[in-house]
């Protein structure tokens, strides 16, 4: 009599053949998705993208739900947060009543505004070049292909599999974070489909990331008649910036990048407003608390001589560190990848993603289960076409292994 593990291996091998034959159709679908703009700040484009995904995933045959989200809350050049509409949160469920469940998650927003060039995909041999091909619509292609294989070959018997696509990861997940947080307790583990690193290694540890703005308010005056009555906000900000950058200390894993400065107006007027926006990366939670306090202290220190300084912002993504439970999940990914002929390597990165939030909320995950590629957030972004099928097969085999563990626990 054939063992259950042998039967499972047989189904995975059959899925491997089927997935391999679906690569070109997945590429064609990915091209359609990438040719549709889905800039994080454009709710109209996001809703068009969502409609396309709803239609295409509708053919997979799993329960669907769309969740309307509150407005985005973003830092700007004033003390008030900017508020903008966004797209819906898209959720699909299979075996939703199962005791053991796994979540597959990635974002469908991109960093490219409408009209930016190039705004269409170009196939160049093994490379598909275009906006979002790797980050992260290529990951959506992997999810869909893997889910189709899981259903076709019965690889998720006894376990639940859900798919979640959010519209705001590239700008901090400020609208969807609360809804996602409310869902994480339903799952045992998660897979996040950010692209691998350029050398095809998967990410282990991640830095935390936060965006902040200092807003300086001075007092306007005529630059010729009574400049002494003014309080030049730009000059005051210029004194503040070196204090901010002094927090930059790569030796202890703290990275501070001053990314935007605004202020002023007519040249014959003492400017009464200036602002500086910055990004901060940290390696651990202690540094996150320490830097946040240092920024708060600076804002208070520079409230002097009739100047007001306000600080807005937060760490939107905490540091992610691999613990013993995380290492067990890494090992499961390594075993599943063998079915696809992959040898998994792990590397650390300074980049942030939603996997960091899931981990902080107690949901263990591996967050680079998508395609391989490079050039993220640039006109040369690409995914490697030959990475789609192996990534999908790895996921299918991992879900099958998860289901096998559930059957084993029921038998005992």
Question: Could you walk me through the main structural features you see in this protein, from its secondary elements to its overall organization?
Answer:
The protein has helices at 4-20, 23-35, 43-58, 137-152, 177-183, 233-245, 285-301, 324-338, 354-360, 388-411; strands spanning 63-67, 72-74, 82-84, 89-94, 101-107, 122-124, 127-129, 160-166, 189-192, 202-206, 208-217, 255-263, 273-282, 308-317, 346-349, 365-366, 373-374, 382-384. It is an alpha+beta fold and 412 residues long. It has 2 domains: 4-206 and 319-411, Aminopeptidase, CATH 3.40.630; 208-317, Alpha-Beta Plaits (2-Layer Sandwich). A hairpin with a 7-residue loop joins strand 17 (373-374) and strand 18. The chain is elongated, with a radius of gyration of 24 Å. The mean pLDDT is 96. Its cofactor is Zn(2+).
Q: How many separate domains make up the residues?
A: 2
Helix/sheet category:
alpha+beta
Q: Per the principal axes of the C-alpha atoms, what is the gross shape?
A: elongated
**Largest β-sheet summary:** 6 strands, mixed
Mean pLDDT: 96
- The CATH architecture assignment of the largest domain turns out to be 3-Layer(aba) Sandwich
C-alpha Rg (nearest Å): 24 Å
CATH topology of the largest domain: Aminopeptidase
Keywords:
Aminopeptidase, 412 residues, 10 helices, elongated, four-stranded antiparallel beta sheet, six-stranded mixed beta sheet, 2 domains, alpha+beta, Alpha-Beta Plaits
Secondary-structure map with pairings?
Elements: H1 4-20, H2 23-35, H3 43-58, E1 63-67, E2 72-74, E3 82-84, E4 89-94, E5 101-107, E6 122-124, E7 127-129, H4 137-152, E8 160-166, H5 177-183, E9 189-192, E10 202-206, E11 208-217, H6 233-245, E12 255-263, E13 273-282, H7 285-301, E14 308-317, H8 324-338, E15 346-349, H9 354-360, E16 365-366, E17 373-374, E18 382-384, H10 388-411
Parallel strand pairs: 5-8, 5-9, 9-16, 10-15
Antiparallel strand pairs: 1-4, 2-3, 4-8, 6-7, 7-18, 11-13, 11-14, 12-13, 17-18
Helix pairs in contact: 1-10, 2-4, 4-10, 8-10
């Amino acid at each position: 009599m054939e063992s259950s593990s042998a039967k499972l291996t047989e189904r995975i091998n059959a899925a491997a053949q089927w997935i391999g034959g679906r690569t070109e159709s997945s590429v064609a679908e990915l091209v359609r998705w990438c040719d549709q703009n889905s800039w994080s700040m454009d709710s109209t484009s996001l809703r068009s993208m969502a409609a396309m995904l709803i239609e295409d995933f509708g053919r997979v045959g799993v329960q669907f739900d769309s969740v309307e989200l509150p407005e985005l809350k973003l830092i700007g050049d004033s003390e008030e947060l900017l508020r903008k509409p966004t797209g819906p949160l898209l959720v699909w469920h299979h075996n939703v009543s199962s005791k053991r469940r796994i979540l597959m998650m990635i974002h469908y927003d991109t960093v490219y505004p409408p009209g930016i060039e190039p705004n269409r995909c170009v196939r160049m041999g093994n490379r598909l070049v275009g906006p979002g091909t790797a980050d992260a619509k290529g990951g959506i292609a992997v999810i869909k292909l893997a889910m189709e294989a899981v259903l076709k070959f019965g690889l998720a018997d006894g376990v639940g599999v859900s798919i979640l696509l959010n519209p705001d990861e590239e700008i901090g997940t400020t609208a969807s974070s609360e809804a996602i947080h409310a869902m994480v307790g339903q799952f045992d583990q998660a897979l996040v489909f950010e692209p691998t690193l350029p050398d095809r290694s998967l990410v282990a540890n991640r830095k935390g990331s936060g965006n902040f703005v200092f807003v300086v308010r001075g007092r306007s005056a005529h630059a010729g008649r009574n400049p002494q009555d003014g309080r030049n906000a730009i000059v005051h900000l210029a004194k503040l910036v070196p204090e901010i950058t002094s927090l930059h200390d790569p030796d202890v894993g703290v990275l501070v990048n001053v990314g935007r400065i605004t202020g002023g107006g007519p040249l014959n007027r003492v400017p009464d407003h200036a602002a500086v926006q910055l990004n901060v990366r940290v390696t651990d939670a202690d540094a996150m608390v320490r830097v946040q306090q240092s920024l708060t202290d600076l804002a208070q220190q520079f409230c002097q001589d009739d100047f007001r300084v306000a600080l807005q912002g937060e760490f939107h993504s905490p540091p992610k560190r691999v613990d013993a439970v995380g290492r067990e999940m890494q090992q499961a990914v390594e075993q599943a990848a063998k079915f696809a002929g992959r040898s998994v390597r792990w590397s650390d990165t300074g980049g942030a993603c939603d996997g960091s939030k899931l981990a902080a909320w107690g949901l263990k995950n591996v967050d680079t289960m998508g395609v391989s590629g490079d050039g993220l957030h640039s006109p040369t972004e690409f995914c490697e076409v030959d990475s789609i099928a192996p990534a999908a097969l790895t996921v299918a085999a991992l879900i099958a292994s998860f289901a096998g563990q559930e059957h084993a626990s029921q038998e005992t």
